[in-house]
Amino acid sequence: MLPTPSVRLVLALALPVLAQQGLHLVVSLSDSIIAGRLQDVSPEARLATLSLRCDAILAASQPTPGTTGLPAFVRTANNLSIAGSRQAAVQAAQTTAHYLAWAITSYTVVVTVGSTALVARFVGGRDLSLACDVLHQSLILAVIFGGILSTAGLAGGIDLILGTLNLQGDAARFAGQYLTVMVALLVPQVVESASIACLVGAGDTRTGLFIMIGVALINLPLAWGFAFGLGPLPALGFVGIALGTGLSHTLGCLAVLTVLVRGRFDLKLEWRRLRPRFELIVRLLRVSVPAAADSLSTVIGQFWFLSIVNQLQEVASAAHGIALRWEALGYLSGAAFGTAAMTLVGQNLGAGRPEMARRSGYLAFALGGSLMTFMGILFFVFAPTMFRISTLDENIVREGVPVLRLVAFAMPALAPVIIFTASLRGAGDTRVPVLFTWIGFFLIRIPLAYFLTKSVVSLGPLGQYAGLGLGLYGAWLAMFADLFVRGAFFVHRFVRGRWQSQKV
Fold first, then answer.
1. Can you spell out the DSSP letters for 30-74?
2. Exposure of 72 in the CB half-sphere (CA atoms within 13 A)
3. What is the distance between the alpha carbons of residues 152 and 143, in angstroms, rounded to a whole number?
4. Domain definitions of the chain by residue range
5. Contact present, 294 and 112 (Cβ < 8 Å)
6. With CB atoms 3.0 to 4.6 Å apart as the test, which of 230, 277, 399, 476 could cross-link to 319 if both were Cys?
7. CA 169 to CA 86: how far, in whole Å?
8. How sure is the predictor about 90, in pLDDT bands with cuts at 50, 70 and 90?
9. Are 356 and 4 contacting, i.e. CB atoms less than 8 angstroms apart?
10. DSSP for 361-407, written as a single string
11. Radius of gyration of the chain (CA)
């Protein structure tokens, strides 16, 4: 018999995930700090740096102002400008890489959501053999879908995406190098995610925490080491961040598979059972494919949104990325309680207790929404400090602080988008939420972003129209409006309760 949903039970499931999300944020912020202090390691950049130092020496050697000293000062100022431009390019590249890394996580939904929902249903109904079968089918799908995306990316998909996102010059070069490494090491990351998703469905959120602690502890020194060439590691610059991330997730994959071979929460990996069972694969995909369509629709909308931001300037793109990484404090807090809601909703529906499933969703929303609102207060108060931790460029700070303060007021609207989405996924209700995503992004956020960011909006044969020209702040105003509309939709969907009779 499952325990009655309570604050203590929700916290017991959510807090390990919250700690795990916190570790993810630490790694993300560490990567941002690396990018903010990284010099390009290409031969051209080394030559520019050497020229900068020589010019500084020449300029200092002139005891009195005069025409002989002027060229040195001019060249020094020019090289300083180049160095600043390169830093903005690195951080603009990291903004795009951050989006694409998040897109990869969204892509894993095609495996993870169905895995968590079905394992939770079978564990709730005490059918542990079927729960183990879901684990094995999930791992098979992880290898297949991870391999498909990895192959597509290395076969030219990365260049296609960067071109679509309007990323050019050094920023495009840095982002392309970063993503090549990430995509090459993608399969272990998807397998890691699928394994942890199955454990979450069984009610085990602690194993994922311990695995991610190990991943973070390995990732941090590897990223810094490969970026700057610490100890025996080569100095790879920006691409070193990706290599550290990819290698740490590969080790995390091996660790979680080792746990499953030994057995955990009635789930045990047995290699002889790793053969396709098409009836279970169909049930997995019936839940996961609509959820993946929802997540990938969000990815498309976010990429479109990013392409609008990238048309502004590299400083705006860099500020946008830093603000997103800090805003993740709120998003990931909600995601932790969403994971708890998904597990409890699925298990209670599997045990034939729909009212307890509803109570689980409301408890998770109350706790997670309160925490997200508190995070919003932190964003508003400490926005300047947060930006100065991430960059030395005051132009980026001035551009980014207002948008981070703006999104502070959107946290109450973002809470139902995240937590009720997870609750509905735990019930297997993954089809209707796709419509909410389409409305929010493609009817509200994207059109508003064009109107609010640009001074002139071109509609092709329909002519040109005046926009407000608010730049990056206008883009975040559009996001603000989208979150409030979608938040209202998800509250309405959960309160109506049709998901309680959903079959999976």
1. HHHHHHHHPPP-SHHHHHHHHHHHHHHHHHHT-SS-STTTHHHHH
2. 16
3. 14
4. 7-501
5. no
6. 399
7. 10
8. low
9. yes
10. HHHHHHHHHHHHHHHHHHHHHHHHHHHHHH-S-HHHHHHHHHHHHHH
11. 24
d(CA 32, CA 402): 19
Residue 21, Cβ density class (10 Å: 0-12 exposed, 13-18 middle, ≥19 buried): buried
Q: What is the pLDDT of residue 56?
A: 41
Going by the DSSP 8-state scheme, the letter that residue 455 receives in this structure is S
Say what angle helices 109-124 and 278-310 make with each other, to 10 degrees: 140
DSSP 153: I
**Owner of token pair 């708890």:** 340
Band of pLDDT at residue 10, cut at 50, 70 and 90: confident
Tokens of 298: 């969000």
**pLDDT band (50, 70, 90) for residue 191:** very high
Cβ distance 457 to 464 under 8 Å? yes
pTM of the predicted structure, to 2 decimals = 0.70
- Non-local (6+) Cβ contacts of 210 within 8 A are none
Q: Which of 425, 357, 450, 460 lies closest to 111, judged by CA?
A: 425
Q: What are the pLDDT digits (tens) for 12-62?
A: 888 888 887 777 777 777 776 776 666 544 444 444 443 433 444 444 445
Token digits of residue 80: 């300083």
Q: Token digits for 78?
A: 């020019």
- DSSP conformational letter for 352: T
Asked if 125 contacts 350 with a C-beta cutoff of 8 angstroms, the reply is yes
249: CB partners within 8 A, 6+ apart: 185, 188, 189, 192, 215
pLDDT 10s digits, 277-322: 888 888 888 888 888 788 888 888 888 888 888 888 778 888 888 8
Provide the pLDDT for residue 84: 44
Quote the CA–CA distance of 461 and 173 in Å, as a whole number.
34
| Residue that has been written with the tokens 């939709």 in this structure | 489
Burial bucket for residue 394 (CB in 10 Å: 0-12, 13-18, 19+): exposed
C-alpha separations of 213 from 131, 207, 219, 352, 463 in Å: 26, 10, 10, 35, 54
Residue with tokens 């995306």: 149
